[in-house]
Amino acid sequence: MLEALFRRVEDKRADVVELTRDLIRIPTVNPPGEAYTPCAELIGNRLARRGFHVRYLRGEDTPGDSARYPRTNVVARIEGKRPGPCVHFNSHIDVVEAGQGWTVDPFGGEVKDGKVYGRGACDMKGGLAASIVAVEALLEAFPDFPGAIEISGTVDEESGGFGGVAYLASLGLFSKPRVDHVIIPEPLNKDRICLGHRGVWWAEIETKGSIAHGSMPFLGDCAVRHMGAVLDRFESELYPKLAAKHTDMPVVPEGARSSTLNINSVHGGQPEGFDGLPSPCVPDSCRMIIDRRYLIEEDLAEVKEEVMSILDHLASTRPNFDYRIRDLMEVIPTMTDRDAPVVRAVADGIRDVLAKSPDYVISPGSYDQKHIARIGHLHDCIAYGPGILDMAHRPDEFVGIDDMVDSAKVMAQATMALLNGTR
Ligand SMILES: [Zn+2]
């Protein structure tokens, strides 16, 4: 029975390559959210021909949504011959900008040495194509499957997923009883199951000063120097503290098993991007954006308190230190149980297709699973898909053709097991 399913997938090798190339050739660059509608329609039209009921759902009034750049999502569903659970494959259709350093056309979909090249090849149009082909093979091999299968192509994952999965989840599209199991084909490698991700806190800190002539800085108060004092405390206190925190979450790469803090930007004084000479002024404002990634063992309130206590201490000890802090984004860490049905089903598939045991990992950065867990309250969700995470967002991004075919086999087998309730 599995043999027949695997043979169907194998027969679709050329098809999965062509579909990946077609998807890459639609430059769904985010920001601004280019060409979402034609990409959603490519997926929708194809699945409609297979008998799926297809809906286009625009994330109206979500960040970036406009008449020129509509946040067009596609959700396709096919019902089985008898009642049963629903397996959902969710892929984001947006890609990041191409950037510099490419030796091939980033939107050409070139095929070379068993790989498909292009922006989004691994993150995650190759995974999307693999899931579509996996499901099509299953429909051909077992037309009287039970339950239901859904495939969605969603927008804006790279910018937080608010017009995409978060929007659909708020409509109930990622909740029981409609959906039971979710696989997100992000590029985590074909032999790894990603159970979840660390938490995120983004905030903007502003230090204040007072403006004066730059030739007499003692008449003013330099906001950049106040920020320097903050950074100094970060170096001496906060960074050592974060490095000492270790998680039991199997985060990859290993460096991300500690808490981390990235200084995303610091800016004070003369606006950036000017030409010529600045005017001589003492900066009265300095802003820093911090990107704190935290562990499942940590509490968000404590994470914030570590930074707040440094700022409050400076306010009580450093003359004229005045600050403001503003939350920009919060994501709760999430980790699906290793015994969850979708984890066991995909693990069986990896053992059968690749003849090895799966690795269980946690992503250092977050992805759309956060919305499915928090808004949809659905916890049987993982990321599993072809491609090497390190290639994501890089020049000459690629996905291996063998990897797409192998992972499509794993997805098809896992879907069968979940629909039949054997996992
Ligand atoms: Zn991605």
Would you mind describing this structure in some detail?
The chain folds into two domains: 2-197 and 333-419, 3-Layer(aba) Sandwich (Aminopeptidase); 200-330, Alpha-Beta Plaits, CATH 3.30.70.360. The strands form four sheets. Strands 1-2-6-3-7-15 form a six-stranded mixed β-sheet. Strands 10-11-9-12 form a four-stranded antiparallel β-sheet, with helices on one face. The chain has a three-stranded antiparallel β-sheet with strand order 4-5-16. Helix 1 packs across helix 4 (121-141), helix 4 crosses helix 10 and helix 6 (223-243) packs across helix 7 (300-317). A hairpin with a 2-residue loop joins strand 4 (111-112) and strand 5 (115-117). 48% of the residues are buried. The chain is elongated, with a radius of gyration of 24 Å. The two termini are 17 Å apart. The chain is built from ten helices and 16 strands. The chain has 423 residues and is an alpha/beta fold. Zinc ion is lined by residues 92, 123-124, 157, 186, 367.
What composes the largest sheet? 6 strands, mixed
Side by side, the strands of the main sheet go 1-2-6-3-7-15
The total strand number stands at 16
Distance between the termini: 17 Å
| Low-confidence residue ranges | none
What general form does the structure show? elongated
Name of the top-level CATH class of the largest domain: Alpha Beta
SS summary, helix count: 10
The helical percent reads: 25-40%
Strand content: 15-25%
User: Class by helix and strand content?
Assistant: alpha/beta
CATH architecture of the largest domain: 3-Layer(aba) Sandwich
Q: H/E order of the elements?
A: HHHEEEEEHEHEEEHEEHEEHEHEEH
- The radius of gyration over CA amounts to 24 Å
Average pLDDT across residues? Answer: 96
CATH topology of the largest domain: Aminopeptidase
The figure for the number of domains is 2
CATH superfamily of the largest domain: Zn peptidases
